[in-house]
């Protein structure tokens, strides 16, 4: 087994493990965001009730509650933005994994001797290549979306 094949195999496993670790990290953060959303929602409900039942409450207390409510809304918006970014990252990881799998299939076909390929093999090779181009274009689109989001936030 040639050294370059072992190196490629090892690097492919490492890349796959990195994608897996990223996916786990993203999943944990999404769960944390969900819990934080629920907590913010409960705090917001309490503040809204306090503001509605404000009969004898001083004006500065009402202002403080309103500021707290606005802070909760801002925090929730920030979390929603982060969640959106994480969902894009999840899609990117899926596309990256799909690209890797298609690349492996394509390499199998391309490593065959041209004289031994059947017409079905050539057709399959072309289909895989087309799918690979499609996945790369989707990843490119995601990168553009991320860049546009980043520029609009600035």
UniProtKB/TrEMBL annotation:
InterPro entries: bMERB_dom (IPR022735), F-actin_Monoox_Mical (IPR050540). Keywords: Coiled coil, Membrane, Monooxygenase, Oxidoreductase. GO terms for molecular function: monooxygenase activity. Residues 23-50 form a coiled coil. Residues 13-154 form the BMERB domain. It is found in: Membrane. Its main location: membrane. This is MICA1 monooxygenase. The gene is Mical1.
């Amino acid at each position: 087994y040639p050294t370059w094949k072992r190196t490629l195999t090892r690097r492919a496993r490492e890349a796959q493990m990195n994608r897996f670790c990223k996916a786990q990290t993203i999943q944990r953060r999404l769960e944390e965001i969900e819990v934080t959303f629920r907590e913010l929602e409960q705090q917001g409900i309490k503040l809204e009730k306090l503001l509605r039942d404000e009969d004898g409450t001083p004006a500065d207390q009402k202002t403080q509650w309103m500021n707290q409510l606005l802070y909760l809304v801002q925090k929730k918006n920030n979390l929603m933005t982060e969640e959106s970014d994480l969902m894009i990252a999840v899609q990117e990881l899926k596309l990256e994994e799909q690209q890797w799998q298609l690349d492996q299939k394509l390499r199998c076909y391309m490593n065959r001797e041209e004289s031994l390929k059947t017409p079905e093999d050539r057709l399959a090779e072309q289909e895989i290549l087309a799918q690979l181009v499609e996945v790369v274009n989707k990843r490119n689109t995601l990168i553009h979306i991320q860049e546009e989001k980043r520029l609009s936030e600035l």
